[in-house]
Amino acid sequence: TVEAWINPAAGQNDATYNGIVSFGPNPASCQNRFLMSIQSNGVPSFANWCNDYVPSATSCPALPFGQWSHLSMVLSGTGTNNIRFYINGQLVSTGTTSAAALTNILA
Fold it and tell me: For the whole model, what pTM was predicted?
């Protein structure tokens, strides 16, 4: 689980990856790194540089701009729907990513 209180501003620079919490370097390998981020439209996203999970605005609500919100991301195992986003304690999106690449940091 990774979580943060954020107060996003409108007009984020990157369409997909405006970083909130990151871990690890970004070399050619996919192993042991991740980024919890927010898209320019306010929708959360996740990257591990191999199999990202970037929900659309129709499948996940956006965080409100100019307002504090609690965002958490939960990775669980390696199967289908192994990533979940919560906004203010409410499950808002599930998806699948290659969390197997994160085995060493999740152990």
Answer: 0.77
